[in-house]
Write a sequence for this structure.
C-alpha cells in the first residue's frame, strides 16, 4: 500500500520508524526467574552480592573505614550472616527498592560497586528462603524473602519493632551442613582481594593476597594465575589475553582498578571482554606491567631493610623477569653463594634436601632459606654425621624457626663461612658445626622394661603433631601415656585442617598425635596399647559434654539467628505463659551457651 508516495507495511507503520521494545506482562515471571537464577556460582554470588552491598552502604553512610561483619555457618548456627552498619532500610525502602528487580540507587555514582538491582535477590539463587532485617530510625523490620511458585520472589513481613540495634542491614541465609566448608573457602578466596580493615570474618580480618607490589595498584603474586582485575573488591580472574609478559606457571598479575573502569556481565561473574572501555583498560594494564616491572623490581631490592631480605627479593624477582643486575646499598646482589677457590674438596659444601639426601654442590642460590653450619672439619659427610644432624635438628627446630614460618629444608655445611657469604645470610642462620658434633646418638633403650620386667625392644620413631604447630619424628615412648594419640593417614597431610587433631591439641595440653601408615599400625599398637585413636576420643569428649547439659542448655543451643528479636528482648520475669518464658530465657542464653561450647 502507498500513501503520498510512501510505502506502508501491512500493519500500517512506516519503514524506518523506531519501535520501542517492551516486556510482555505474561513473561514477567519467567524473566524474574531468569534474573534470580543468573549465577553459575551461587555460593560465590551470595557472598559477593551481599558483601558488596554492605560495603556500598558503609560508603554511603560516610563510614567506609568501618568493616562489615560476616559470620560463617557452623553446626549450632547454620547460617551465613552478613551485617553492615550503613544507611539501613525501613519498610518503605524494602518495598520501593529492595523488592524490585532492576531497582538501584547506585547508577549515578562511581563510589558504589552495585548498580544493576539484581544482587540483593541473589539469596534465592542459593536458598528457598532467607531473612532480611533492616534497622533504621530506631525500628527493626524483619522480612522473609522466598521463592514463589511462578519463579519470582515473595517478601513477607515478619515483624517490626523498636530496637536499640545499630542502624544497618543484616542478611541471614540458611546453609546445609555439607556446604559449610565450601562457603568458608569461597569467603576466604573472595575477601583476600578486599582492602585491609574492610571486613571481619568470624570476628577476625581475612588473609589478604600478597606478593610483589609493582605499584599501589599492581601486584605480582603466586596466589593467582593469569591476569586478575579487581574492581570494588570483586575479582575477575584468569583473563588469559596477557601474552608472555610474565612467568605464567609461577606468578600472576592482579590489577586493582577504579569503579567504572571496566564493564561486567549482569551476573558480575566475568568482565565484558568485548567492551571497548574494558579492552582498553586491560591493554593499559599490560603495557604498564611491561614498562614498570623492571624499575619496580629493582626498587624493591634497593628498598629492602637488610641484605638477606634484598637477596630473597632479588631471587624472586629473577624468577619473574628481572633482567638487570640487582643492587642493594651500592653492592651487587650475587645470584649464588659459593666458596671461592680453585677446588672444592669432598664434603666442603653439602646440601641436605628433603628427598635427595646429602650431596656436594658448588653453590646455592642466594636468598634460599638455609642454615649454614660452619667449622665442619671432616673431608666426608658420613651417615653417622647425618644422624647427628637429624637428631640435633629435631631438638632445636622449634627454637630456631619463628612460629608460623615454614622450616627450611636445606643445610649448608662448610669448613668456614666467609664474610662475603655472611653478609647475605639472615641473623641466627649461621651456626657452629660443633653444636651438631656434640650430639650423642641415643642407643636403643634396652633398659626400658615391660610389665613383666623384661627389656623392651626399641620402638623407633613416627611422624607426630604437637601443640604450637610443630611436626616432626618422635618416639612414642618419650610421650606420657595420657598425652598419646594416633590416627591413620598421610604424614605429609596438613593435620591442622583436621577438626579432631585440632580439638585434641587445643584441649589436651602437651598432646602428641602420631600419624601412622596402615602397615605400621599393628606394631605401634603392640608397643603402645594405651594410645587413643583421635576420632573415638573426640566423640567421647562430645558425649561427655552433651551429658553435662541441662534441658535448658539444650534448648538455648537450639536457638539461632532467626529467633525474632522481640522474643530475645522479653523480660522473662513478666511473662505469664510458662512455655513462652522458657523459650525467651533460652534465647537470651543462646550466646552464653555458644561461648561455652566454643571454650
Amino acid at each position: 500500500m502507498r500513501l503520498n508516495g510512501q510505502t506502508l507495511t501491512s500493519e500500517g507503520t512506516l519503514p524506518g520508524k523506531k519501535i520501542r521494545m517492551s516486556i510482555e506482562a505474561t513473561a514477567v515471571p519467567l524473566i524474574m526467574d531468569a534474573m534470580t537464577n543468573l549465577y553459575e556460582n551461587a555460593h560465590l554470588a551470595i557472598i559477593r552480592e551481599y558483601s558488596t552491598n554492605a560495603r556500598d552502604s558503609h560508603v554511603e553512610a560516610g563510614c567506609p573505614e568501618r568493616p562489615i561483619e560476616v559470620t560463617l555457618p557452623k553446626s549450632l548456627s547454620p547460617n551465613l550472616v552478613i551485617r553492615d552498619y550503613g544507611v539501613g532500610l525501613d519498610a518503605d525502602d524494602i518495598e520501593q527498592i529492595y523488592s524490585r528487580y532492576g531497582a538501584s540507587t547506585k547508577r549515578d555514582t562511581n563510589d558504589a560497586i552495585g548498580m544493576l538491582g539484581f544482587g540483593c535477590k541473589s539469596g534465592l539463587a542459593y536458598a528457598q528462603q532467607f531473612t532480611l532485617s533492616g534497622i533504621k530510625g530506631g525500628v527493626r523490620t524483619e522480612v522473609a524473602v522466598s521463592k514463589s511458585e511462578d519463579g519470582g520472589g515473595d517478601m513477607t513481613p515478619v515483624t517490626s519493632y523498636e530496637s536499640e540495634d545499630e542502624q544497618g542491614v543484616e542478611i541471614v541465609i540458611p546453609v546445609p551442613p555439607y556446604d559449610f566448608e565450601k562457603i568458608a573457602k569461597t569467603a576466604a578466596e573472595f575477601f583476600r582481594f578486599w582492602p585491609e580493615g574492610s571486613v571481619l570474618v568470624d570476628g577476625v580480618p581475612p588473609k589478604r593476597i600478597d606478593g610483589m607490589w609493582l605499584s599501589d595498584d599492581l601486584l605480582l603474586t603466586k596466589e593467582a594465575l593469569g591476569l586478575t582485575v579487581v574492581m570494588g573488591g570483586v575479582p575477575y580472574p584468569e583473563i588469559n589475553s596477557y601474552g608472555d609478559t610474565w612467568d605464567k606457571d609461577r606468578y600472576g598479575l592482579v590489577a586493582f582498578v577504579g569503579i567504572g573502569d571496566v564493564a561486567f556481565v549482569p551476573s558480575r561473574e566475568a568482565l565484558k571482554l568485548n567492551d571497548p572501555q574494558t579492552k582498553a583498560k586491560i591493554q593499559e594494564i599490560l603495557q604498564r606491567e611491561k614498562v614498570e616491572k623492571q624499575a619496580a623490581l629493582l626498587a624493591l631490592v634497593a628498598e629492602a631493610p637488610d641484605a638477606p631480605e634484598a637477596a630473597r627479593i632479588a631471587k624472586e624477582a629473577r624468577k619473574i623477569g628481572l633482567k638487570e643486575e640487582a643492587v642493594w646499598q651500592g653492592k651487587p646482589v650475587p645470584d649464588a653463594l659459593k666458596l671461592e677457590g680453585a677446588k672444592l674438596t669432598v664434603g666442603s659444601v653439602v646440601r641436605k634436601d628433603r628427598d635427595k639426601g646429602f650431596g656436594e654442590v658448588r653453590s646455592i642460590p642466594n636468598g634460599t632459606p638455609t642454615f649454614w653450619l660452619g667449622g665442619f672439619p671432616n673431608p666426608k659427610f658420613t651417615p653417622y654425621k647425618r644422624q647427628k644432624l637429624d637428631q640435633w635438628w629435631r631438638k632445636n627446630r622449634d627454637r630456631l624457626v619463628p612460629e608460623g614460618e615454614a622450616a627450611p629444608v636445606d643445610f649448608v655445611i662448610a669448613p668456614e663461612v666467609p664474610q662475603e657469604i655472611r653478609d647475605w645470610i639472615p641473623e641466627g642462620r649461621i651456626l657452629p658445626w660443633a653444636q651438631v658434633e656434640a650430639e650423642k646418638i641415643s642407643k636403643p633403650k634396652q633398659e626400658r622394661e615391660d610389665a613383666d620386667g623384661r627389656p623392651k625392644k626399641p620402638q623407633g620413631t613416627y611422624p607426630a603433631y604437637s601443640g604450637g604447630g610443630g611436626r616432626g619424628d618422635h618416639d612414642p615412648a618419650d610421650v606420657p601415656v595420657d598425652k598419646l594419640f594416633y590416627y591413620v593417614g598421610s604424614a605429609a597431610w596438613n593435620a591442622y585442617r583436621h577438626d579432631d587433631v585440632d580439638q585434641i591439641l587445643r584441649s589436651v595440653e602437651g598432646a602428641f598425635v602420631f600419624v601412622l601408615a596402615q602397615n605400621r599400625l599393628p606394631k605401634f599398637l603392640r608397643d603402645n596399647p594405651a594410645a587413643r585413636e583421635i576420632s573415638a576420643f573426640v566423640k567421647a569428649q562430645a558425649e561427655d559434654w552433651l551429658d553435662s547439659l541441662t534441658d535448658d542448655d539444650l534448648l538455648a543451643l537450639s536457638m539461632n539467628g532467626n529467633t525474632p528479636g522481640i522474643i530475645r528482648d522479653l523480660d522473662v520475669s513478666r511473662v505469664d505463659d510458662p512455655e513462652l518464658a522458657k523459650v525467651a530465657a533460652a534465647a537470651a542464653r543462646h550466646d552464653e551457651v555458644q561461648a561455652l561450647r566454643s571454650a
Notes: The first strand starts at residue 2 and ends at 3. Residues 484 and 531 are 5 Å apart (CA to CA).
